[in-house]
Amino acid sequence: MTDYTLLYILFAPFVGAIALIFVSNRQAMLVRGIAAGSAFVSLIASLYLFYAYDHVKGGFQFIQKFEWSRQLGISLHLGVDGIGTPLVLASGILLFAGIFVSWHIKDRTKEFYIWLLILAAATIGVFMSLDLFFLFFFYEMSVIPMYLLLGMWGSHTKKYNEMTDPEGLKQRDSVGFIFNFGANSKEYAAMKLVLFLSAFAVAALMGILLIYKFAGLNTFDILVLREQAKLMNIPVLGTTLDKIIWILIFFGFASIAPLWPLHSWSPVGHAAAPAATSMLHAGVLMKLGHFSIIRVAFEILPETTRELMPIAAVLCMFSIVYGGFVAFFAKDTKYVIGYSSSSHMGYVFLGMAALDYISLTGAVMYMFAHAMATGMLFAMAGWVYDQTHTRDIPSLGGLSNRMPFISGCFVIACMASIGVPGTVNFIAEVMIIVGSWNKYPLQVIVAVVGIVLTLAYLFKMMRGLFYGPMDQKYSHAHDAVAVTDRLPLLIMITVSVGFFFFPMHLYNVVRSGVDPLIAKIIRVVPISSLEPDTSDVKREATSQSPRPETLLLTNTASPTRGFE
Amino acid sequence: MTFALTISPSDLLLLLPEILLTFWLCLILIIDFSFPRLRNEQLAYFSIAGLVATLGCLVWFDVADITGALFGNMFVLDGMALFFKIFIVGSTILVVLASIDFIHRFKFFRGEFYFLVVMSALGMMFMASANDLLSVFVALEFSTLGLYVLVSYLRDDMASNEAGVKFFILGIFAAALLAYGISLVYGETGKLVFSDMTSAQATPGLAIGFLLIFAALGFKIGAVPFHSWIPDTYHGSPTPVTAFLSIAPKGAAFAILLRMFFVSLATFKPVWILLLVATSVLSMTYGNIVAIAQKNMKRLLAYSGIAQIGNVLIGLATGTKMGSDAMLFYLLTYLFANLGAFAVVIAVSEAIGSDEIDDYSGLGRRSPFLAFSMLIFLLSLAGVPPLAGFIGKLYIFVAAVKEGLYLLITVGLINVVISMYYYLIVVKKMYVTEPHDRSPLKVSGSMKAVVYVCLAGTLAIGIYPQPVTDWVVSAVMMFSHLADPTASLPVPPAVVPFGG
Asked: CB contact, 8 Å: B459 with chain A?
């Protein structure tokens, strides 16, 4: 237990945030330095984590456990498996990049960095929690910084005050109408985001509390619960308890993912947020949803997952197509990228729903890849907005003359987002599509249509921003020249391209987390028919997976690691 | 009933905190009369010194585990009484400290203000120890007497007078209910001490009697439907008194409620659980929904307080040891968050002379310290991690889920979201809206001290609650026979290592 890597990753941003409280806002460089320094510590530690994660051994590594509340059975139990590791790395990269993307924020710089660091640290905390309580704790903790970041440093959508409906009334959607906010104002976006996420988070909390009660083990520890919780076949309200819990957990966490009918907070929130926040938000915050579903529903309720996961397979089609079409017709750069993100999250759900080794590995890799791609896009949309003070695509154009570096990077980012070979997104997308084909051919066709849509709207936006005639009023716009401005983009491009050429470690790491999970889900058979070696399900599982034997070996090989 | 009044000095030791405070009370008055040139803050610090000495004495009792009963069980000093006494004295210290800035608004009787506050606190300390319906009545009226005066202390302010009259009339009404309830219970059982009534037979008279007592105590804690005095009284009272009202009497009343429901009426749990569920659901929902419409910070906190009490009642409704742990824990988190919020309200109203939420616009620019503190306190009240309020809510919900009170949890969780809305409206005003006037606000040292203490409490309990949990668990050891079935698993079973 001497390896404190996870603690460094998790607490470096918190320490940075606390240190910032004692610095005056006038010393802007010191403020930025502290923020960048703490993010750097976190990034280096997460790189080490990714490098040092032993994929042959698999399982949860770097485990830290501190008792936190005896009476409630809570301990600060941290550890990462192959699924958490790349996501921790993605958070580290995006936080570090985000610090530089927001280098030019002048208004209340210190407060901005404090909330940004807390947001990132809370996100990282979710990815390494092995305790249901702390998973929820960090999850909920990431919501409030979003509110402040959006409210204080966000921007309104263009002409939000003048938007009227045909009758000349101020245009609002139903939520905005009830709470009397102007449509598309940043306050409205922030409030909608918080209320939406909190409302669904309490549903997930209800699920967690039900698991806690019916497991009867007086603990929130995921590792204990997944081995010992007996939640199956308890009849309640005409269905079984495990289904109710699963639905609560799934939809509770799917809201942040965001799955199609629950997505409406997300593009509004992206659009209002400052660039670095959008990056973290779309890059890693949305993955909290998928990750929490995998960690809670897949781990603790594998049989129910097998039974109910087709729900996700149906809804993800709507996610992909709806998000794609809205992105195509949107005129605001951030709306395009926001809807494109929620459309792309549909692929992750498809990969998860297929419950296949390849597709789930693809889904996790896609989360990582998408974090880089969407991070770049938001960073550059933010840069363009800072230079031109507009996000309205039709009024922009021809900026590639003024900002060649940005437009070059933008092309790469679009390529990455589409999944062109040369970026890690390609590998991930292909794995999702290949892995899901057997089970969900229709969805795969929809996904491919979605890729075409992505191509269409991203190229449309790229043309609208950087090519064609340029309005003379943007002639003062300038390129990213300083190292601090170019660094974040270069980092993300390097990661995105680098993992295309050297994907094996990433693949192996993810695979080592996915294998036991899928093996558990597709092998589990009702207890009545449990006969070793004759079960069809089991044979099917072994035939699909190339490496279940090594997996079994590794599971028994090291029973002592990580526990006192 | 006769009392054998053979009190030995060692028995009187149990009364030491009360005796100490009574002497101090007299000293405050004497000093105020004898030294007319004495400044207000000197008298305030003198009162605080006495309260701190009392607090030290109580903490010593708690650490040394000095417990016992006096006067034929009318007065008990057990872990729970000590907890609530520390709770009451601690909140009184903070209130007195917070009132130093406010006191110049009183035209007369500034010295007596401290006398009355400490006197009420003394009454509440007796409430925490009251184990007998008669001592409940006497202690409750004794503490309320001081509050009647305090509420209407701003003599020229019509709102304060209105608040006083409203509080007085409804308070007297509640006292009458209490007296009538006590007489019915005594008539049915022939007993007055809580712990003697455990074998009482269920009769209509007894039911009505306890219902009336519950109504009177419900008035004290401000639970719906006994809440009607709360908004106007909170709004009209001098703000330090509002802060005091919102914490200390509620804690004292919960001590009595715990003794009543968990000791006397433990066998009637299936009956009173319905009563408590209904009260809790109504309090949470009504408090939160009406709070949305508020334009005044004090009223907002009043309604949010009603809702918070609904949460505490969930713990009472569980009827288990864990429920009582959670209640005590929750009250402690509520103490820090609510007192802190009121302290900020006092500081802001000293600086800009207004309690309207609109006037909090741009507080984040005018006073980052006050705005940040208010943010933390409101988020703690809303139940956002890593603040104390979150752990408190979770503790309550865990206790409730173990008893299978799903309705209460569902309503409670929905209300968390509703409350998030109106707390965030204040946050929006403070941080997002630009100020009309950008001049920075001045905050006095004593106010800062109160806010710092509350901040420290809110953050420390939220980040590492174990010491506080240990304390509340040992404080209500007396209810350990009410343990729920799953509590017999103190240690989580051994972990099977990773892998499928």
From this structure: no
Omega within 30 of 0 (cis) for the link into B17? no
Taking an 8 Å cut-off on Cβ atoms, the answer to whether B490 and A137 are in contact is no
| Residue, of A221 and B70, whose pLDDT is higher | A221
By C-alpha distance, which of A376, A400, A379, A507 is closest to A462?
A400
Give pLDDT, residue A217: 81
Which residues, listed in sequence order, are joined to residue A239 by a DSSP beta bridge? A236
Query: Which residue stretches of A389-535 are H helix?
Result: 404-418, 424-437, 441-466, 483-501, 504-523
- What type of residue sits at position A432? I
pLDDT at position B336 over 90? yes
> Closest approach of chain A CAs to the CA of B405, in angstroms?
11
Q: A66 has which bridge partners?
A: A76
Helix, strand, coil content of chain B in percent (nearest 5): 75, 0, 20
The pLDDT assigned to B498 comes to 42
* A80 vs A68: CA distance, rounded Å: 19
User: Quick one: which of B116, B114, B146 has its CA closest to B49?
Assistant: B114
pLDDT at A306: 85
At A170 the pLDDT is 52
Residue B177: per-residue pLDDT: 93
Task: Say which DSSP state B4 is in.
Answer: -
In our burial notation (b when 16+ CB lie closer than 10 A, e otherwise), range B99-113 reads bbbbbebbeeebbbb
SS3 labels along B28-91? HHHHHHHCCCCCHHHHHHHHHHHHHHHHHHHHHHHHHCCCEEECCCCEEECHHHHHHHHHHHHH
Residue B435 burial by CB count (10 A; 0-12/13-18/19+): exposed, middle or buried?
middle
User: Higher model confidence: residue A545 or residue B381?
Assistant: B381
Q: What is the mean pLDDT of residues B404-419?
A: 91
Count Cα neighbours of B83 within 13 Å in the Cβ-side half-sphere. 28
- pLDDT tens, residue by residue, B129-145: 988 899 999 999 999 99
Of A151, A217, A551, the CB nearest to B493: A217
Q: What pLDDT is attached to residue B485?
A: 47
pLDDT computed for residue B394 by the predictor: 92
Half-sphere exposure of B311 (CA within 13 A, CB side): 34
Q: 């007998």: which residue's tokens? A: B132
Strands A239-240 and A235-236: antiparallel
Q: How confident is the model at residue B212 (pLDDT cuts 50, 70, 90)?
A: very high
CB neighbourhood size of A424 (10 A): 27
Supply the ipTM of this predicted assembly.
0.88
Question: Which residues in chain B have their CB less than 8 angstroms from residue A195's CB?
Answer: 417, 420-421
Locate the domains of chain A by residue range.
Answer: 5-557
Q: Does A156 lie at the interface with B, CB-CB under 8 angstroms?
A: no
**pLDDT one-digit tens code per residue, B448-491:** 999 999 999 999 998 888 889 889 888 888 887 776 544 444 44
Q: Mean pLDDT of all residues in chain B? A: 87
Helix (H) or strand (E) holding A61: strand A61-69
Closest residue in A to B471 (Cα–Cα): A71
d(CA A276, CA A155): 13
Residues 255-314 of A with CB under 8 A from B: none
The answer to whether B381 faces chain A, any CB pair under 8 Å, is: no
CB contact under 8 A, B499 and A59: yes
Instruction: Please check the confidence at residue B497 and state whether its pLDDT lies above 50.
Output: no
Which residues does chain A have within 8 Å of residue B493's beta carbon, measured at their own beta carbons?
Answer: 217, 219, 224, 228
Residues of chain A with pLDDT under 50: 1, 160-166, 174, 526-564
Phi, psi for A80 (deg, rounded to 5): -125, 145
Separation between Cα atoms, residue A231 and residue A559, nearest integer Å: 25
